[in-house]
Amino acid sequence: MPRIEIICVGNELLMGSTVNTNASWLSQKIYKLGCVTARHTVVGDDVDSIAEAVREALKRRTDLLIVTGGLGPTYDDKTLKGVAKALRRKLEVNKEALKQVEAKYRELAERGVIAKFELTPSRVKIATLPSKSIPIRNPVGIAPAVIINYKTSKIICLPGVPAEVKAIFTESVAPIIKQMVGDLFVAEGCLEVKSLPESSIAPILDKVVERRRGVYVKSHPRGFEGSEPKLEIYISVTKPSKAEAEAVKEEVLSELATAICEAGGEVRRKQP
Amino acid sequence: MPRIEIICVGNELLMGSTVNTNASWLSQKIYKLGCVTARHTVVGDDVDSIAEAVREALKRRTDLLIVTGGLGPTYDDKTLKGVAKALRRKLEVNKEALKQVEAKYRELAERGVIAKFELTPSRVKIATLPSKSIPIRNPVGIAPAVIINYKTSKIICLPGVPAEVKAIFTESVAPIIKQMVGDLFVAEGCLEVKSLPESSIAPILDKVVERRRGVYVKSHPRGFEGSEPKLEIYISVTKPSKAEAEAVKEEVLSELATAICEAGGEVRRKQP
A64: which strand partners? Predict the structure, then answer.
């Protein structure tokens, strides 16, 4: 299984004004492709913090490092500076990226959104990438995404705007991950349990997981353990075929439901 | 300014089924107390990953490390094991924590939620803490939070359930941060800008920030840079008095509004 990590860059995440939905959206998509993201890191708009986080992720032998945010035209868009510093590569205007950026601003000028076409320093900055970068088309925004191959790792930098993250991931990143992971299928299920606290369910879950591979079970308290116990038990099964994943999931769900009923809990299936 | 980091523990965060609202809620509260969180890290329910993340945060001279999640009774609640490993401390049943846990389960038995009072291994686990830990009261759930003083750092472990995080933070963690930070006040403002792309606003922001201390300005694209440019410019000013913070904020907001109008943008104030 490849090791995938995500670094999100943005002071607004560290100030708590923005919830990190990019990390969860990306992780969910990666999970559906058969792989669990190994770590999320959030750092601010600071070259040294970004470089440090990138270096640390590479030290952990990360195969694919996805970095989001900080590709725009303003002074605090510092991701590519940070990545270049971590890899000891120079920043240089990338011809292909400049072509993409130029086309976008020409179009804006034609539509009258900007007064005239002009490649200002802020706009050229968007196309200034670490050396040996490969720009990727941004179908909805201006800043191209960036692929950098470094030793045995691949670093992909995406913008921070969620709509741009989603479009670029779907078009260009998902196929790369699919190829790294190979054919794996995930089947998911969920049980809602009432009238039994998590501490009473813990030994039941232990038993089910002990005996099986590729099966993941986790309980999430939804009511307060202290007042009205209500739990969700999430089950996922990862297997090389869809049929096998579904079959094992059914087996686990009914085994759990039986054991929980016997222990005095109320249980019902629910959409995961 | 103290260095504060947050580590969130939970496979569900890395699988993308749960959005990390704990990190943003905590960061927002910490920011209102005058301090920007330095980093968020998310790791899975794995002792070695937790221990590694804790060790790394302490190496970065973190004064206060907040760890959320993984304090419950199930086999995959591994936070305290991970913290103990990072600090090379033993895990032991903490008398004060056991008293708190016992009282909660006695109450559950009295109310008939559990059939009888019993300190099962899963329940004693909740009170099994790294040596020299100080348990903190959990006003809404069962697992006590944990304070550990380690060299010049303080580690605070909170449960993962958002209602428990909020209650314990407000009651017991906010006062600790307030004391670390001292008296600082944050004034926030926001401008909505239309008809001018971010690349045209970038040089205006540069100028305003260059000349001032304690002033933070960041633009966030809300429409697509490529189609209908719409931006929010967030401003915050941190000063030792509320009056000063408010005065500087007003100054910055009107200076920005004037410059943006002169450049051809439409601008209006909005709630931050």
Answer: A4, A154
**Is A147:A155 a contact under the CB 8 Å cutoff?**
yes
**Terminal C-alpha separation, chain B:** 24
Torsion, Cα of A107, A113, A119, A123 (10° steps): -100
Residue of B nearest to A102 (CA): B226
Which candidate, A171, A169, A167, places its Cα nearest to that of A157? A169
Under DSSP, is residue B120 helix (H, G, I), strand (E, B) or coil? coil
pLDDT in tens, B116-154: 899 999 999 999 999 999 999 999 999 999 999 999 999
B36 in Cβ contact with B177 (< 8 Å): no
Dig out the tokens for B154 from the structure.
């303080």
Confidence at residue A253, expressed as pLDDT on a 0 to 100 scale: 95
> Mind spelling out the 3-state secondary structure of B170-208?
HHHHHHHHHHHHCCCEEEEEEEEEECCCHHHHHHHHHHH
Q: What six digits make up the tokens of A93? A: 């205007």
CA dihedral (A242, A246, A247, A249) positive or negative:
positive
State residue A226's pLDDT score: 52
**CA gap A169, B7 in Å, rounded:** 26
Q: Is A199:B73 a contact under the CB 8 Å cutoff?
A: yes
B225 pLDDT higher than 70 = no
Q: How far apart are CA B91 and CA B16, in angstroms?
A: 31
Q: Given an 8 Å threshold on Cβ–Cβ distance, is B197 in contact with A114?
A: yes
The answer to whether A141 contacts B19, with C-beta atoms less than 8 Å apart, is: no
- pLDDT tops 90 at residue B114: no
Identity of residue A253? L
Chains A, B: CB pairs < 8 Å: 230
Q: Which segments in chain A show pLDDT lower than 70?
A: 223-228
Cβ contact A10:B220 at 8 Å: no
Q: What DSSP state is assigned to residue A172?
A: I
Give the residue carrying structure tokens 């349990």. A193
In which residue are the tokens 């009923």 written?
A: A261
Q: How far is CA B146 from CA A227, B50, B80, B84, B201, in A?
A: 22, 16, 9, 12, 46
pLDDT of residue B115: 81
Would you state the torsion angle of the CA atoms of residues B163, B168, B170, B171, taken in this order, to the nearest 10 degrees? Answer: 140
Distances (CA, A) of B212 to A78, B172, B206, B242: 20, 35, 11, 17
Contact A226 B142 (CB under 8 A): yes
Number of residues that this document lists for chain A: 272
